[in-house]
Design goal:
This protein has 330 residues and is mainly α. It contains 14 helices and two strands. It is globular.
Length: 330
């Protein structure tokens, strides 16, 4: 199996894992969402600590925190953002709002595009602008028809979009960055769990099955993130862009057909707008990828080696029409 094939399989497994998560959280429905979140953070920190120790990277992670204060702060913020995202997600599932989580993760790629423009100066193509406008129209339709803002969906999309922006701003090996993020939130989560216990508001002691499920939240949280990190280095972002819709589609189907959540005509119309936006986004990504591939093939036919992650620069020694035909690696 080639590296791109391995990457595609890893990405598919990650999104399949995320898409099936409603079953796991529903099995813990007897525990309050905030208590589940506390356990999820603490056990995730324990799991990533073990991974970091086994990989011999604990020293480099600690050294990174001391040497890179600015990036460490960004990772700390990212840890709290993803924790807020988890909290919204678990709470929404356990109170019967699975479809709203699905909508949030459908909106997320479009939010990421918007943040790319606002925070990193990335330019949007016309089709991408149309996709964002279509998604906004869908959200506005729900507001106008139901008289309510889909706060859960927007909260999930915005927190995960900001988390992605934090990850983009900090280049660090996936296990180390995940360890720093979780360890930054773990003390607050542990204090909260102790507070619940001493205040008599915790469900502890748990039965054996619940204890095992709570301890497993660390694995359930961390493994798909590691699979995704592996995939990101092996396959094109266009491929990942398609595969990522496995998760919200599974969540949508689970919420509609397994847990029988109501799907009003207005909510369905909102989903249709989001699906249309994603169709525009995906078609544009495919065409852009093909255009880039044709350009690479044209350069290869000219006998010019293009190193991985190369980018064009102007070479004043070449004729005017060919000044962009040489490449320099990043």
């Amino acid at each position: 199996m080639t590296n791109p094939q391995k990457g595609a399989v890893a990405a598919f497994l990650a999104y399949l894992w995320w898409g099936s998560m409603p079953f796991y959280w529903k099995a813990l429905q007897s525990i309050s969402s905030s208590e589940i979140l506390g356990h999820r953070v603490v056990w995730s920190a324990a799991f990533t600590l073990v991974l970091t120790l086994l990989g011999g990277r604990l020293g480099s992670a600690v050294s990174y925190i001391s040497r890179n204060k600015k990036n460490s702060r960004l990772l700390f913020i990212g840890g709290y953002l993803i924790t807020l995202n988890w909290g919204l997600y678990v709470w929404a599932i356990n109170v019967g709002r699975i479809l709203e989580t699905s909508l949030g993760y459908y909106i997320n790629p479009l939010v990421s595009m918007l943040f790319g423009t606002l925070l990193f100066g990335e330019r949007l193509r016309a089709a991408q602008k149309a996709a964002i406008a279509t998604a906004v129209a869908g959200v506005c339709l729900q507001i106008a028809a139901l008289g309510e803002v889909p706060l859960v969906s927007l909260g999930i999309a915005l927190t995960f979009g900001l988390y992605g922006a934090m990850k983009k701003a900090v280049a660090l090996e996936s296990r180390e960055s995940l360890f720093i993020e979780t360890i930054s939130v773990a003390p607050a989560a542990l204090v909260y769990l102790l507070y619940l216990q001493f205040a008599g508001r915790a469900d502890f002691p748990y039965d054996p099955a619940t204890t095992l499920l709570l301890a497993g939240t660390g694995v359930m949280t961390s493994v798909p993130l590691l699979l995704f990190a592996f995939a990101a280095h092996k396959v094109r972002l266009t491929t990942i862009g398609f595969i990522q819709y496995v998760s919200p589609t599974m969540t949508f189907l689970i919420g509609t057909f397994v847990y029988r959540e109501g799907l009003s005509i207005y909510r369905l119309a909102t989903f249709c707008c989001i699906w249309a936006a994603l169709a525009i986004y995906s078609a544009d990504a495919v065409m852009a990828g093909r255009k880039e591939k044709r350009a690479e093939n044209a350069q290869s036919r000219e006998g010019i080696f293009i190193p991985p992650h190369a980018h064009a620069y102007k070479d004043p020694t070449l004729p005017r029409g060919k000044r962009l035909s040489r490449f320099r690696g990043r």
